[in-house]
Transmembrane protein 267
Amino acid sequence: MVICLTRFLQRLSAYIWRALFSMWDAIAYCCRKTMFIFQYIFLGLLCIGIDYLVFRHFVKKNDYIRALLDNFGHGLIAAVSWLVVSGIRRESVIQAVCCAAMSSGLDIDHFVMAKSLKIKDANSLHTRPPLHTTTIVPILTPILQVWCGQNIHCLQELPYMFVVAVLSHHLRDAQRRGLWFWPVGSTPPLPYGIYIICVILLPMVVKDARAGIKRLSSGHSEQLPAANNGILTAPEGV
């Protein structure tokens, strides 16, 4: 009787622990999924919040405040987008700041093309400045990937940061003027909902592309030593 009771208690204890571990795994899984979804929702809400501030009446009346807030919005959206791509780590935070600087820095071509430091002149251009053409992404990204990403260790993330910085900036501008694909032309202005969806999808696409390219690179680097060994090692009897 005592032996049966002991076995029953052991089995019951095992079932309870198994149930607790399963429950913990389920909670952890739900938390991961919630955080995964929340980061994209937060990015979309951030875009809406910044646009709400930029188009407030007291901001629209002052060109300098509006320009500063709009430029800050470009940088903040790029930084958060990069953190979604790479996760929150010390290196990622530094990279996010650099990504924000790149995105905000794109607006400098307004002043260069206007040949003036006045906000009014920079906003009164008859044509769009060169850094605002989305064509630079497919042109410069492979160059950055080959020259920097593969040869300079500290710049391995630069191609992906460049894509996030430029496209997040261009997508935000596209709600007013569309995307400019030189020399083909510009798309119609993006509806606001499409703009928000595109900004949310951007880090998701870049994250998947980044992971895929790294897998290909690691697989290629593992195959090279094996191939070299096959070439250098002569068969016995030769």
Remarks:
- DSSP finds nine helices and two strands in the chain.
- Residues 231-238 have pLDDT under 50 and may be disordered.
